[in-house]
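From the methods appendix. Each design record in this collection lists the tokenized structure first, followed by the designed amino acid sequence. Records were kept in a plain field format so they could be parsed without special tools. The example shown here is representative of the layout used throughout.

RECORD:
FOLD TOKENS (258 positions):
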């Protein structure tokens, strides 16, 4: 496992006043990168040096911790998790940092959050959707059933099972089961018609063995300027591979071709 630099935690407020956290690395054109479910900005982007790879090419990499995750607020009140609240939080970050000319992307839930922001009018120059396929965007109902079962049956899984490993990961990141359960109620579908209106160049990046959220190739095809690319790994392991950060950096530098 790569070493993790200790980046300072910065704060911003959700539109409902929730105290949320972000980290950043590098200087230059801003890139907001949103992590996946159960994870954190540090685990997704810093630990395996993806942020460092991108920052080295002249970018200011801004990495929020989603509500209910990491160093951000983890309220237990269901009212703090209305539909699309993660996109609301993303807009709050962009507004409070005064970002106007920037890029935006995410992994898994972070990619879905990015799509929701794009569908609701966010206008980054370029977008990155990693670890996400078409089904995970247009049909979100039931997508969290696997995690809901884990979070409501903690301590019951056979050692070595997929569920047991997910629970072990939850413990390593200090995840809050109550807050994370509420996150599953925030998902919102994005119809194909909305995807067809997302016009900026968009990298759709998927692990070669990742089929957790449907077809990334189909998602790329549903976008007017989608660029499909593959990196090694499955849904969990792709984020540990250096190829992920390199692919994002090369796309931002104009190296990824449609």
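DESIGN:
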């Amino acid at each position: 496992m790569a070493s993790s630099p200790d980046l300072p935690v910065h704060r911003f407020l959700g539109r409902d006043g929730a105290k949320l956290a972000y980290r950043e690395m590098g200087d230059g054109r801003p890139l907001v990168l949103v992590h996946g479910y159960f994870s954190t900005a540090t685990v997704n982007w810093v630990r395996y040096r993806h942020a460092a790879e991108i920052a080295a090419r002249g970018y200011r990499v801004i990495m929020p911790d989603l509500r209910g995750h990491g160093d951000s607020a983890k309220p237990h009140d269901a009212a703090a998790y209305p539909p699309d609240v993660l996109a609301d939080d993303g807009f709050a970050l962009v507004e409070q940092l005064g970002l106007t000319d920037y890029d935006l992307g995410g992994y898994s839930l972070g990619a879905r959050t990015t799509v929701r922001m794009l569908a609701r009018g966010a206008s980054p120059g370029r977008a990155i959707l990693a670890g996400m396929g078409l089904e995970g965007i247009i049909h979100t109902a039931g997508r969290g059933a696997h995690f809901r079962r884990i979070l409501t049956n903690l301590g019951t899984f056979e050692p070595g099972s997929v569920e047991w490993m997910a629970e072990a990961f939850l413990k390593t990141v200090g995840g809050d089961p109550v807050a994370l359960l509420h996150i599953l109620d925030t998902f919102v579908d994005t119809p194909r018609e909305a995807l067809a209106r997302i016009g900026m160049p968009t990298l759709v990046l998927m692990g070669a063995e990742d089929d957790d959220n449907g077809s990334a190739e189909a998602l790329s095809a549903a976008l007017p300027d989608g660029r499909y690319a593959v990196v090694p790994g499955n849904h969990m392991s792709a984020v540990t591979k250096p190829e992920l950060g390199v692919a994002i950096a090369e796309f931002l530098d104009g190296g990824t071709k449609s």
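APPENDIX NOTE: The CA atoms of residues 134 and 162 lie 24 Å apart.
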